[in-house]
Each structure stands twice: as C-alpha cells, then as structure tokens.
Amino acid sequence: MGRVGLLGRIMLVLLGALSLLVVATFGIDRWQRSQEHWPYGSRFPRLDQAAGIMALLKDADPAQRPAILRAVSGEALKAEILDAPPDATALIREPVLEARLHRLTGDSTDGIRAFTESDMLYRGKGPADAGTGTWHRSIGGLAEATYRLPDGRTLVISAIKGHHSLMPWLLGQPLSLWVAVLGVAVAGLVTVGARHELAPLPRLTEAVSRFDGRAAEPALAPQGAPEIRRLAQAVQAMQERIVGLMGERSMLIGAISHDLKTYLTRMRLRAEGIAEPERRARLVEDLDTMTALIETALGFARGTAAEVGRSPVDLADIVAVEVAEHAAQGAHISLTGEEVPDATVAGDAVALRRVVANLIGNAVKFGHSSVAVAVTRSGSACQVVVEDDGPGIPAAERSVVFSPYYRVERSRNRRTGGTGLGLAIARQIAEAHGGTIVAETAMSGGARLVVTLPALA
Predict the structure, then answer these.
(1) Are 76 and 159 in contact (CB under 8 A)?
(2) Is 200 helix (H, G, I), strand (E, B) or coil?
(3) Integer distance in angstroms from the first to the last C-alpha of the chain?
(4) Which of 26, 49, 86, 294 sits a CA distance of 20 to 30 A from 241?
(5) Could you tell me if 416 and 409 are in contact, meaning their C-beta atoms sit under 8 angstroms apart?
(6) Phi, psi (5° rounding) for residue 439?
C-alpha cells in the first residue's frame, strides 16, 4: 500500500464498497430464490399463500368469490375459478407439494393438484432421506395448483413467472448483474473526476522539487478543490518567506565576513611587527589557520559551495590532476579509470575539484599505507570511488559523518584534526550537481567514499 498513490487509494475504497454491494445483492438474490423454490425450508410464501386461498374459497359464498379472487391475486400468485380443470400436460405433477397443501388445508380428498415446471427442478436436502439428507428424485417449486371446489368448479392458482419478492429482475437479468454494471460505470466516472481534481498535485510537487531557496517558483493557476488551492497558496507563501530569509542570511554573513577579515588583517599586521622570529611565525600560522577556518565555515553557511555553473567537466581529468599532486608529495596513491573517455558531467570544475581534493585528502590523512582512486561510467552516471586502508568509518556513523562539524577522528591536532566541514561541503556540492555521496567499507576494512553524478549525454 505504501506505493499506491492517492488516486489509487480512492479507487480501492470505491471498488471495495461496490464489491461488497454486489456480493450482498447476489447473496440476497440467491437466498430469495432458494426460499421460493425449496418446499421444505423454513418459509413457503407461495405454497402457504396458495393453501390459504384454497381454505378461504372452500367455504366462501359463491357471490363473494369474485371479490376474494381480486383480493388474493397479486404480484406473486394469480387466482381464478374455471368451469373445468386446465390443461396441465406441459407441467410436471409434484406429489411433495400436494402433500403439504393437503396438510395445510386439512382437505383429505383427491381434489388438490400441484404442478412444477422442468426449469424449476432441483435436488436438495429434505425428510425423504434422513440418512443421506438428499432426495431420491428432483423436486420443484410451485408453478400451478388446482383445487376442486364443493360446487364442482376448479380453483386455479398460478405462480407468476419472473417474480421475486425481494430481488426483482430488470429486463430479464438479475439485479446483481445490473448492480455490477452500474458499479463499473460509476467507478469509471469517479476515476475521471478524481484525476481531474488531483491534477494540480503533481504540478505542485514539481514546483516544490525545483525550489532551491534562491527564487520562488511561479505561482500555480488556482484550480481544483478549495483545499488544494489553499495548499498551493500556502506553498507559494512559504517559498517567498524562505527566499526572504535566505537573502537576509546572506547579507548578515557578508557583514560578519567583512568585519572578521578586517580584524584578522589588523592582527596579522601587528603580529608581523613582533621582533622574535619564532613567536612571530607561530602567531602568523595561527592567524592563517583561523582565516582558513572562518572562510570555510562562512562559505558553507552561505551555501557558496553549492552555487555551481553548468558547463561540461571532465571528471577523470580533475581526479587525475588531484592524484598527481598528492603522489608528488609522497603519498602512496593509485588511480584507475583516468582514460575513461565519457566521464563528463555538467557542473562547475572548481567546485567538483574541491570535492575530489577533500575525499583524497581525507584518505591520505587517515590511510595507513595506500589510497586507491577509481573513475567509472555506468549508464547515465559517473562515479568517483576513493578507498583507504585506515580505521574506516563505523556503520552507525556513515550517515552523520556528512553533518557539519562532525568528526569521526575527534582529535584537534594539526595532523589529523579538522574543522568537520569537509564532507559536509562535499555533500553540498554533490547534491547541487544532482548527485550523491555515500560512505561504505572498503575491502581492506578502511573507508570507501563513493560520489555519483549524472553523466552528460
């Protein structure tokens, strides 16, 4: 169910309700038929009614018979008095029904006849065979009954074909079939209407997905239900508030950056005026480190690391240059895939090199003896994989390691300590390029960082 959309859920509820309606209608229809045709069930509406008519007309004044016949004839049975018994050659005489009519009327003469039709025959349980619970021959529902009145005339009671007291048929078909047809038609209409009403939601989702905080998306045309229109207006207002807050933050960060750099420049000038060389060098080094730290932190806060252009960038070339620089400094580092011809992505070369430099720098810093770098292209994606043989990243920390100021190695010395922003900035740049960066475990047990970026077609 987690993959079923809103329209699908609406349709499932509708189809479920219609299915229950069809099943209930069909069940009632079947039950009613069994009640009408099974003579030894708990109810015998036609048979009991026929016996009552016979008992009523048996002792009635002949002058009152026409009125009684009009009163007892209805949708289920038709009663009439004939001078001679009707022709019953097309019907089948049913002794079981006759026995019940004799018992209900209290008439022991041979004047009662009960008939059924061939299409009303069926087998069923009954008292004829208590051992097996089935009849030795088929029995049927009441189609016609005759009764010889005391004056010699014949009362004929005929069952009206096609009548169902609880489930009337329509155009010769059971009502359950028409309910099913109606359900399919209603489901189709609901589908069309629901698709029309939900059409603004996909457009609203696309607008929210495109929003990057720099400029609000164009307002959607007001359409759909009032709740959807209010949702679109709320999203538009939220985007405008976010754009305003982002602008104010950029102005504040710019002011802080300007003031900090001013004071750092003054401190550096004063530090260079110190006469003691060792003390002067240490102060200048601390100020340079502080300047780099502040610039990195402010750059991440401004999001400038993610402000990338869109031009073709040879990823293999960037990686090869960065690997060569570390190898020249004495690092044991290997590269595969530098000759991949189609490892080209759309983005900013400077920002992407910063990602590669950060990952390789961390691998060289924390690896024990060697670092392996690979560039690949698979389908519509390019990958840069950096592995080391260091202590690795614990499984519980592989997601939070990309959080700002988080460090797996928590020391603060200049060799292994850091600002804790390197991987956070790398992820910021990768996501700005439409890619991802994940931490895994290398075959050697060390860390394995994988950057995946969409390849240029």
Answers:
(1) yes
(2) helix
(3) 36
(4) 294
(5) yes
(6) -110, 135
Q: What is the mean pLDDT of residues 147-151?
A: 90
Which token pair is 349? 């070369």
CA 333 to chain centre: 48
DSSP state letters, 230-260: HHHHHHHHHHHHHHHHHHHHHHHHHHHHHHH
Task: Identify the burial level of 295 via C-beta atoms within 10 angstroms of its C-beta, where 0-12 means exposed, 13-18 middle and 19 or more buried.
Answer: middle
Q: Per-residue pLDDT for 164 more than 50?
A: no
Report angle CA 140, 143, 149 to the nearest 5 degrees: 120
- The pTM for the full model equals 0.46
Beta strands in 136-182 (DSSP E): 139-140, 144-148, 154-159
Which residues lie closer than 8 Å to 234 by C-beta, 6 or more apart? none
Q: What is the pLDDT of residues 435-444, one digit of tens each?
A: 999 999 888 8
| Cα–chain center distance at 185 | 24
Q: How many helices (H) and strands (E) does the chain have?
A: 11, 14
Where does 303-348 have alpha helices with state H?
A: 315-328
Assess contact for 349 and 308: CB atoms under 8 A. Answer: no
CB 387 within 8 A of CB 444: yes
E-only strand ranges, 83-131:
92-93, 112-116, 121-122
Give the sign of the dihedral formed by CA 26, CA 30, CA 32, CA 36.
Answer: positive
Cα Rg, the chain, nearest whole Å: 46
Query: 309 near 347, Cβ under 8 Å?
Result: yes
CA 63/CA 61 separation, integer angstroms = 5
Which residue's entry shows tokens 């932190």?
297
Neighbours of 337 (CB within 10 A): 19
Read off the DSSP letter of residue 173. Answer: B
CA–CA separation, 117 and 148 (whole Å): 21
Can you give the pLDDT at residue 138? 44
d(CA 268, CA 264): 6
